[in-house]
Every structure is written in structure tokens, then in C-alpha cells.
């Protein structure tokens, strides 16, 4: 192949198509536990998380939630992945060997939010949320008391119980710039002149953060018929500062691969070994997350 601008532009269009097809076809699971928020600047402040939406009877003046005490800012970060194509491979019509690499760029870009969100889930017992406490904490301030959304009394593998059916999700994916396929492929670019290389890659701007702690519970107890209903009851008992029930109903258990069997035995088998009905059958979906391995 003759190396000129027209042919290089054709290669870019071909790579871009391959990238987009791979990106669109790649599986992803972050959106089950996180809400996507579009960012218009370098950061966003989520102090509004301190006003858990709840209707009340209108008697007298409106009761306005003071958000001045809350602050939770997410600053966007830059991410990229880049590969090089040798000029000789273009001249020798060997571009096809790069197809899996470009597909890999698309796949990685699609799944990167999964990596970030589930790494955040695993570390959220040490990540501050809007009320100044760790997201998973034993003493979230509610109506003058400390309310826990964590059980650290065991020594088993950690699992999570979440409520994901509300408009607000337990976690946030903040997107400033969606992934875009880019190239440095002019014949007179320095790396082409000095090293016989053309560069192709993907970049985006985003960040992840924690949302409402009331929608999540962390436990290192055994995932069984004793501690699952205890976590479930704790979440369903959460109230607001006016001591009104929040009406939270957890619907998702998130586990690492090592707990897949325990989760399915607890939640996906209608009949117990004794022949009795399983009271916890289908009370929550199971999400097995390899990023938690």
C-alpha cells in the first residue's frame, strides 16, 4: 500500500468503525448500580444528595432542606489507551493484524466504567460521602442518632445488598467526555518520521463517586438465611431526619465469583433441601462481579 494521507485516512475510518462496533457490542454492568451524570465542567457538586426526596403534607410554609452543610464534589479525570502501528505493516498491507488490538481498545473503553465503579464499591467503606461519613459506615447521622449501613461482625467474604430501582442510584458515573477514537497519523508527524510509527487510541474524561448511602449495605457475615434477611430488614427500616420511613426495598445482591454459589442457593432456588419453600426466593437479583475477585 502506498503511504499517503488519503490511505491513512482510510485506515483511520476502518479502525474507527472496528472500534465503535467493538465498543457497542461489549458487555457492561456498571449501570445496574450507578447513575450516569453528564458534566459540563471540570467538576460537579452533589450536595443535593443531602435532600433525600420525600413528599410531606403541606401545612403552613414549605419546609426547605438546608444543603449548606453538605458538600460532595467529583472532579473529572482523564483516561486513555494508545497503540502504535508500524509503517512497514501499512506498506506491506498487514493492517488486518491490528484488528484485534483496535477491537480491544473498544472493549476496554466500554468496560472501564465497570472497573472504576466496582473498585469504588469495594473501597467505599473508606470513601467519604455527602454527610462527611464513609459511604459504608456505622454512624451516619440521622435524626440525632448514628445509623449503620455496614456489618463488620463476621470474617467471611464481603457481599453487598443494594436498592437499584430508584432514579437515584447508590453510585455515580460522571461523564465529561465520552470515549472517542483518535489518531496521530499524518505522514509528517514526528513519530512517523523518526520511528516509522502511527498512533491510534481512545480517550475520555470522567470520574466515579458514591451516591446515597441509604441505598446500599455492606456485610462480611455469611451470605445465608440469617444475615441476608438481617441486612434486608436494616435497609427497609431506614428513615429520614423527620423519622419517616424511606420505603427502601433492596433488590440486588452483589458478590465476587467466590460467593456466586451461595448467592444463587439463597435467592434462586425455590425449594429448600427440606422440601419447604424458600422464603428468600427471588427477593433480590444476583450480580456476580469479576472486578471484585
Features:
single chain; 293 residues; alpha/beta; five-stranded mixed beta sheet; 6 helices; elongated
Structure summary:
With about 290 residues, the chain is an alpha/beta fold.
Description:
With 293 residues, the chain is α/β, with parallel strands linked by helices. 26% of the residues lie in helices and 25% in strands. The chain has helices at 5-25, 87-91, 99-123, 190-195, 227-236, 260-267; strands at residues 34-38, 43-45, 73-75, 77-86, 140-142, 145-147, 150-151, 159-162, 171-184, 197-210, 216-219, 252-255, 285-288.
Order of helices and strands: HEEEEHHEEEEEHEEHEHE
Please mark out the parts with pLDDT under 50 across 5 or more consecutive residues, or reply none: 62-69
> Can you list the strand order of the major beta sheet?
7-11-8-12-13
Number of helical regions: 6
Structural domain count: 1
Mean pLDDT: 89
The percentage helix is 25-40%
- Please outline the major beta sheet: 5 strands, mixed
User: Terminal Cα separation, in Å?
Assistant: 46 Å
SSE map:
Elements: H1 5-25, E1 34-38, E2 43-45, E3 73-75, E4 77-86, H2 87-91, H3 99-123, E5 140-142, E6 145-147, E7 150-151, E8 159-162, E9 171-184, H4 190-195, E10 197-210, E11 216-219, H5 227-236, E12 252-255, H6 260-267, E13 285-288
Parallel strand pairs: 1-9, 7-11, 12-13
Antiparallel strand pairs: 2-3, 4-10, 5-6, 8-11, 8-12, 9-10
Helix pairs in contact: 1-3
Amino acid at each position: 500500500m502506498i503511504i499517503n494521507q488519503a490511505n491513512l485516512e482510510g485506515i483511520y475510518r476502518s479502525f474507527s468503525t472496528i472500534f465503535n462496533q467493538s465498543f457497542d457490542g461489549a458487555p457492561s454492568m456498571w449501570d445496574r448500580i450507578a447513575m450516569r451524570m453528564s458534566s459540563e465542567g471540570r467538576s460537579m457538586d452533589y450536595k443535593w444528595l443531602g435532600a433525600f426526596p420525600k413528599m410531606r403534607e403541606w401545612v403552613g410554609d414549605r419546609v426547605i432542606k438546608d444543603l449548606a452543610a453538605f458538600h460532595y464534589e467529583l472532579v473529572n479525570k482523564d483516561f486513555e489507551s494508545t497503540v502504535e502501528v508500524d509503517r512497514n505493516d501499512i506498506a506491506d498491507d498487514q493492517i488486518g493484524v491490528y484488528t484485534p488490538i483496535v477491537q480491544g481498545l473498544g472493549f476496554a473503553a466500554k468496560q472501564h466504567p465497570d472497573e472504576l465503579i466496582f473498585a469504588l464499591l469495594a473501597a467505599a467503606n473508606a470513601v467519604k460521602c455527602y454527610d462527611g461519613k464513609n459511604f459504608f459506615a456505622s454512624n451516619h447521622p440521622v435524626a440525632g442518632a448514628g445509623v449503620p449501613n455496614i456489618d463488620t461482625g463476621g470474617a467471611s467474604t464481603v457481599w453487598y445488598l443494594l436498592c437499584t430501582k430508584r432514579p437515584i442510584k447508590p453510585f455515580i458515573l460522571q461523564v465529561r467526555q465520552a470515549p472517542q477514537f483518535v489518531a496521530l497519523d499524518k505522514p509528517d508527524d514526528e513519530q512517523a518520521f523518526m520511528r516509522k510509527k502511527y498512533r491510534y487510541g481512545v480517550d475520555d474524561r470522567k470520574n466515579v463517586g458514591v451516591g446515597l448511602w441509604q441505598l446500599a449495605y455492606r456485610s462480611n457475615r455469611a451470605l445465608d438465611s440469617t444475615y441476608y434477611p438481617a441486612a434486608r430488614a436494616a435497609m427497609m427500616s431506614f428513615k429520614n431526619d423527620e423519622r419517616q420511613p424511606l420505603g427502601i426495598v433492596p433488590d440486588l445482591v452483589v458478590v465476587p465469583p467466590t460467593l456466586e454459589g451461595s448467592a444463587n442457593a439463597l435467592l434462586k432456588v425455590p425449594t429448600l433441601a427440606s422440601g419447604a419453600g424458600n422464603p428468600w426466593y427471588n427477593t433480590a437479583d444476583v450480580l456476580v462481579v469479576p472486578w471484585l475477585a
